[in-house]
Amino acid sequence: MTTRLMSLMTLVVATGVLAQTTTGGPIDPQRAERCAVRLGIALTGKSPTAALISSPNPQMQIDALLDSPEFIERFSRFINSTFNDTPGTTSEADSAYHLTKHVLTNDKPWKDLYVGPYDITVQNNAVVVRDDPNGLGIYRTKAWVERYAGNEENGVKLATAYRMLNNATGVKLTAAVQMPGQDFSATGRQNSACRGCHFDGWFALDRLASVLTKKVVNADDTVTFVPPTAGPQQLLGRTVSNDKDLMTALVDSEAFDFRTCRLAYQFLYGRNELSCEGPIFDRCVDAFRASGTIQAALKTVASDPAYCQ
Questions:
Q1: Does the pTM exceed 0.85?
Q2: Which residues contact 255 (CB under 8 A, 6 or more apart)?
């Protein structure tokens, strides 16, 4: 018996859950009611329906809940607030919301949010997602590119690189506060206090940004973007030449699978996973890898007996 399976069995025994709960059989009526309330609020933001509250095992209804418009709306808003510090100044700027909704509604792979062939535009005063072979999830949409272009003096898109890195892997870096006389130029970022985040390690922002287009502010204050000049870079264990290469490498990494299941925990529990939940988290990662959908990750966590204790 594998260590992983033994850990899972230990968890089930420790929680005192009857075998029927893992096979879809009925559970204690009071626990079933509590479970229905928790699932209804967590997944849809609403009180449970009559059908859910009367179900002998509400966790058997998770697929239906994940297909509901209420879940799609709630989860799309969750991703948008997770990927952005503040709401966009226009609806189009909240590209994560619109593309998440499109991915969920059409049962697309979760990676499409990051690398899918789409564009987000405004047509007839409404924001629409349309197919675009030159698209890259949310990361080539006009509103997103302009929103996170940053203000580095030479047009290096450090803010863009960080957002791509954070969205795909969950890595969080804290920007330093510039002190009088401190050099935040490309040369200054080479200093020991800064280079750890900018030039060393797999998440080095300057190295990641070197393969992205550069921001140019023209004399009339309009903004354009020009191709990178640094040439291909060895990043994330492969040769990376542009934003598509970079985001594809991030999505192909184990960190992306981990990030996806952590998003599932944050949505369902409002927190990161606990160390004792390692076996469930592993199952979440396996389910996500097998299906490619965020729904599979969410279902794995929400259908575990521990979720409705």
A1: yes
A2: 168, 169, 170, 171
